[in-house]
Amino acid sequence: MTATSPPSPPAHAREHEHKDPGAHITPVRHYLAVLATLLALLSLSAISALFSLGYWNTIVNLAISVIKTLLVMLFFMHETEARALTRTTSALGFIWLAILIGIMLTDFLARSLVPPPW
Fold first, then answer.
1. pLDDT tens for residues 3-21?
2. Which CA distances in Å does 102 have to 25, 31, 90, 99?
3. Dihedral sign (CA 102, 107, 111, 115)
4. Could you tell me the CA-to-CA distances from 44 to 37, 38, 52, 64 in Å, in that order?
């Protein structure tokens, strides 16, 4: 009887062997910069509610939320260091969300403004 060697793991399971374990550490200053940017965008969206921009309020706040979502995806979810399949899946989800928001905005902007009954 001859001893057989165990089967080798698939390529995606061996990815961690080639990467430097210290390369995944992000400096704290990056997180603090992203935090400051997110807080600035939060205050900008709160301040934009004080101005009467008509239907542009919705568009401006959606744009701010898209920027905040991108920041969270890129820095906190580490999409820049992820595998290609993970990045593709995240990008497709983001594109699908953009399509749905575009459809919603098309419907919203096509409606006529109905004054309140009071």
1. 677 777 766 666 555 555 5
2. 36, 31, 18, 5
3. negative
4. 10, 10, 14, 8
Question: 24-56: buried (b, 16+ CB within 10 Å) or exposed (e) per residue?
Answer: eeeeeeeeeebeeebeebeeebeeeeeeeeeee
User: H-helix or E-strand containing 86?
Assistant: helix 84-110
Q: Which two tokens stand for residue 43?
A: 């205050």
Q: Map out the domains of the chain as residue ranges.
A: 27-110
The larger pLDDT score, comparing residue 116 to residue 54, is at: 54
pTM exceeds 0.70: no
